[in-house]
Amino acid sequence: MTDRPGDASPFALGLLLRRAHWRAAGVMEEALRPLGIELRHFAVLIVLVDRGPTVQRDLVAATGSDKAGIMRVVDDLERKGLAVRRGVPGDRRVRAVEITPEGVELFDAAHVAAEPLAGRLVAELGPGEAERLRDLLTRFAHPAGGQV
User: Fold this and answer.
1) Res 1: pLDDT
2) Which residues of 128-144 are buried (b: 16+ CB within 10 A; e: fewer)?
3) N or C end: fewer C-beta atoms under 10 angstroms in the chain?
4) pTM of the prediction?
5) Nearest 5 degrees, angle CA 101-CA 105-CA 120?
């Protein structure tokens, strides 16, 4: 059972996906490092840009993190001025996290920094294969009917 090309093991696909994730995450971390954040911070910024102010429990679900991990990430983002916690009207116990203008600037800068590095990830693929891979992975990660 390996993740080497040609492995017929029923575990091979999962192992290959894990290796691909490690490789992609490493490249994206390289892009984020000069900006002073990590991939875990960027994952939260992605959710905030996509959804707007989001309660912390929803950040947990959206990022696949745990409550303590999200608390640390949001603390870091607040310290850096990239996000703020605000009360939710009607529930004094719940706090929503909102991206700041500085957070949006960093989010945009991260995309600029990642663009040339992302090209390295697909450099071995032929014409149209990067788009095909993205399509296949999207369908794999989000199957019709929400199946697991």
Assistant:
1) 52
2) eeeeeeeeeeeeeeeee
3) C
4) 0.83
5) 155
Rg (CA), the chain: 18
- For tokens 């984020």, name the residue: 32
Instruction: State the Cα–Cα distance between residues 39 and 13, nearest whole angstrom.
Output: 24
Q: How far apart are the C-alpha atoms of 107 and 109, rounded to whole Å? A: 6
Give the span between the Cα atoms of 39 and 73, in whole angstroms. Answer: 10
- What is the structure's pLDDT at 146? 65
Strand order in the sheet with 91-99: 54-55, 91-99, 83-88
- Walk along the chain (148 residues) in steps of 10 and give the mean pLDDT of each run: 70 87 92 94 95 93 92 96 91 89 96 90 93 92 75
